[in-house]
Amino acid sequence: SYFSQFRLSSATIKPIGEGYNTISLVNRASELAKEKDYEQVWCVFDKDDFNNNDFNNAIVTAEVQNFGVAYSNQAFEYWIILHFDDHQGGGMHRKEYNKKINNLLKPFKLVYDGEGCKIITEEIFEVLDGIDEKTNRARKILAIQRAKRNYEQFEHTNPATEESTTTVFKLVEVLLNYT
């Protein structure tokens, strides 16, 4: 629901959410990539409670196939939090994400159902796409900078242990080139 709301002028996004685990998702992406010639294929997945080896192998397998990888450790909602909060990484379990996001959305009179449907509504996306009042900067740009900083704190030899990090910023940077 998040990626399909980008307004792109020269590209088309075809998000396919089929609920696979990490390595199964990469294998499914490989099958889909053989069915049609895509300019880019990205695998977007969370660490959640998946086995560390499966998570790390999914990243390596996707990269070997020249797929982009936008993972989140622990969950995608961490990316949402970074639009509002300069979280420095580590120390926040994904069970805290929903409450944190809803506290951040409270001034906008919006609610995120992270424990149910996990849909980024058009209204929430507009807020994420907006300007931060404190810094007068685009929230997406702030999230990218924060995610990069947190990501660069690690050597990436074992991404499954690199909490809290996300590489969603890499995919968003690519998408912003098409807006």
Write the layout of secondary structure elements.
Elements: H1 22-35, E1 42-46, H2 52-64, E2 68-73, H3 77-81, H4 97-105, H5 122-128, E3 131-132, E4 137-138, H6 139-151, E5 165-166, H7 168-176
Parallel strand pairs: 1-2
Antiparallel strand pairs: 2-5, 3-4
Report how far apart the termini are. Answer: 17 Å
Low-confidence stretches: none
The description of the largest β-sheet is:
3 strands, mixed
Mean pLDDT over the full residue set: 93
Helix content, binned percent: 25-40%
Alpha carbon gyration radius: 16 Å
Percent strand equals 5-15%
Number of helices: 7
Form type: globular
Task: Please trace the helix and strand order, writing H or E for each element.
Answer: HEHEHHHEEHEH
Strand order of the largest sheet: 1-2-5
Short description:
With 179 residues, this protein is mainly alpha-helical. 39% of the residues lie in helices and 9% in strands. The protein is built from 7 helices and 5 strands.
Description of the structure:
- There is one protein chain.
- With 179 residues, this protein is mainly alpha-helical.
- 39% of the residues lie in helices and 9% in strands.
- It has 7 helices and 5 strands; from the N terminus they run αβαβαααββαβα.
- The chain has helices spanning 22-35, 52-64, 77-81, 97-105, 122-128, 139-151, 168-176; strands at residues 42-46, 68-73, 131-132, 137-138, 165-166.
- The strands form 2 sheets. The protein has a 3-stranded mixed beta sheet with strand order 1-2-5. The chain has a two-stranded antiparallel ribbon with strand order 3-4.
- α2 links the parallel β1 (42-46) and β2 (68-73).
- The protein is globular.
- The mean pLDDT is 93.
